[in-house]
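Purpose: get a first structural picture of the assembly so the mutagenesis plan has something to point at.
Setup: two entries, given in the order below. No constraints added.
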Amino acid sequence: QQQVKQSPQSLIVQKGGIPIINCAYENTAFDYFPWYQQFPGKGPALLIAIRPDVSEKKEGRFTISFNKSAKQFSLHIMDSQPGDSATYFCAASRIQGAQKLVFGQGTRLTINP
Amino acid sequence: DVKVTQSSRYLVKRTGEKVFLECVQDMDHENMFWYRQDPGLGLRLIYFSYDVKMKEKGDIPEGYSVSREKKERFSLILESASTNQTSMYLCASSLGGARRETQYFGPGTRLLVL
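Result (structure tokens, whole complex):
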């Protein structure tokens, strides 16, 4: 049972475009929503995270938008660069059993020069 | 910087072999995790440990066991490897406590079971 559904599976964007990756969750007890970035040959690394008490969080060119009523959150990358090409994973965790992250299926993002 | 190291980057084993994957973290983290990563399925939690000698099953523990005898080391054991365990295995660690701490991942071990 996939508790966090991520789309699209792959995405190709021209440099300077704004790729958007979407995630939807089912468990209303989730209260922490991180995004991880993974480059080839490396393990995932935390990119940005949000809690449901805010609707948006921005760090540099990366923004998370959060819609609690729809149980959806998304990652936007402004002014995308070829160096942003990576696999992105959304995740969620709940108050009980803290530290246990449930990951989405991943999105392979390619930014063409 | 937190460093999580995994004993092998690539491993080839035969069906039925006992396989040990080792993970070491150098930041005195309480929590350690084992995931497997498969295309289209994301990362799925196999086991995690929140203290020495403590372990808890994740979402897909069948066919796996773990060992944590020292705080810095967390081992994943495939008792009898099967072809459907061919995958990328990722170890992670986090500080612990009730806060939602960042998980730090190792580079992964790509396991091929023939």
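The longest strand of chain B covers residues 42-51.
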